[in-house]
Amino acid sequence: MSLYTAFRPALFLLPPERAHRAAICALQRGMVPTSSYRNPSLETTVAGLNFPNPVGLSAGFDKNAECYAEALAAGFGHVEVGTVTPRAQPGNPQPRLFRLVESRAVINRLGFNNEGAAAAAGRLENRQAGIVGGNIGKNKESSDAVADYVSAMQILYPVVDYITANISSPNTPGLRALQAADELGTLIDALHHTRRELVAKGQPAKPIFVKIAPDCSEEMLEAIASTAMARQLDGLIVSNTTIARDAVTGQMHANESGGLSGAPLFVKATETLRAVYRLTGGAIPLIGVGGISNAEDAYTKIRAGASLVQLYTALIYEGMGLAERINRGLSERLSRDGFKTIAEAVGSESR
Ligand SMILES: Cc1cc2nc3c(=O)[nH]c(=O)nc-3n(C[C@H](O)[C@H](O)[C@H](O)COP(=O)(O)O)c2cc1C
């Protein structure tokens, strides 16, 4: 039994948001074991960035860039902070985060509660080595979504290694409409334009990713894939939480509105990833997210086409030691199957 599993019953007596705050405090106080595990087979270059391993902490855990360094030290190969919006906002009324313990899932309708892009950027200045992405979104009250993404990007860009435009949270009204081809094309063009301006001012060129939902129809996925390829987008993150509830019917809290994540999302998110890999033919790097609980799940995503993976919800049930356990399990699987590197395994199920 890990130390975390011993502590978990006490943590689960707290309301989920309080438990999350306690987890951040524990990280900041050095109460979480660090990982020194390294394996050359796990090193991988994606969109020009060199990752020590393919396992990332997905957006939402460290919304305000308070504990990214500790999460990297715990064994994650990258951390995506955010979602941040240009201006601070409180998010939806509480309660807005629910545990579905039976299926190792959660439902959240936080609604981009965050301290704003400038507060996060301040905490990312003068940081040490390690890959940190900045996940950006729009303010709830804003009527010009594209302008919000541009201004959040301008603030975060100098202090992160990549930018992710989150257009797939189910908790900001109208956000997912940005996934429609015309809207997506306009958004990507605006972000690329912003990057050209920043590069002209002396910033290095950094990758821009877009994060999509697992609830897209095949036609939507086709449109997203072709829009992304036509604009040479640097990567797609597949996926955010789902609004579907079929995998958790009848369970406590299953009818709460918001996005479902964790184990019951795995099949749907992986099918979406597989479809996007087929539609893009490997032309665009994919980051596989959704329901990863162990090394086998991460390996399945990689073999389905993910160059990197990310996770969040499983940490609530397994603790931070999970990053190292997944990395160890991944390198075992690579050598078992005769792959020298992660890159060789990407998409291998369809070859
Ligand atoms: C409490 C919570 C908050 C989240 N907040 C964000 C967010 O701010 N931005 C974002 O892009 N994704 C957010 N996500 C989605 C996760 O990054 C991830 O895409 C999703 O949970 C699926 O992965 P998982 O099953 O490993 O958790 C959040 C997820 C949870 C559980």
Keywords summarizing the entry:
351 residues; TIM Barrel; 37% helix; eight-stranded parallel beta barrel; alpha/beta; binds flavin mononucleotide; three-stranded antiparallel β-sheet; single chain
Stretches with pLDDT under 50, minimum 5 residues: none
Arrangement of strands in the largest sheet: 3-4-7-8-9-10-12-13
CATH superfamily grouping: Aldolase class I
CATH architecture: Alpha-Beta Barrel
The coarse overall form would be globular
Number of domains: 1
Q: Helicity range of the residues?
A: 25-40%
Quote the distance from N terminus to C terminus: 38 Å
**Bound small-molecule species:** flavin mononucleotide
The average pLDDT value, as a whole number, equals: 96
Descriptive notes:
This protein is an alpha/beta fold. 37% of the residues lie in helices and 16% in strands. It has helices spanning 3-11, 16-28, 68-73, 117-124, 145-156, 181-200, 218-230, 266-280, 295-304, 313-318, 322-336, 342-345, and strands at residues 44-46, 49-51, 55-57, 78-84, 97-100, 105-108, 131-136, 162-166, 208-212, 235-238, 259-262, 286-289, 308-311. The strands form three sheets. An eight-stranded parallel β-barrel has the order 3-4-7-8-9-10-12-13, surrounded by five helices. A three-stranded antiparallel sheet has the order 5-6-11, with no helix packed on it. α6 links the parallel β8 (162-166) and β9. α4 (117-124) packs parallel to α5 and α8 (266-280) packs parallel to α9 (295-304). It is globular. It starts with a helix and ends in a 6-residue tail after the last helix. The protein binds flavin mononucleotide. Flavin mononucleotide binds next to β4, β6, β11 and α10.
